[in-house]
Amino acid sequence: MIVEIHFQEGFSNEKAQLLVDGEVVEEFFLNTRFQLGMAAIKKVDAVRGTKVQVALPDRSIKQPVPVSHPYVKVSLEDGKLTVSPTDQMPGYV
What we know:
mainly beta, four-stranded antiparallel β-sheet
């Protein structure tokens, strides 16, 4: 199953990592585009049981990402990552 991770609100030049089964598979920077409320979309090919995580290493934050839904919304709020799985593709204007 392809899982789309939608990085949304609260990111300002944040170094981020995408980990699959404990290994960093991608490293990138996130900047929220305020007009859209979106920073980036990353895709992961994962089956149930695959351990997917998002990390902000400069903040020492690592958060698991569920692979049970096709879309996952991730935002940075009050210094913490919020992760919300959904079956509906997030919309941007």
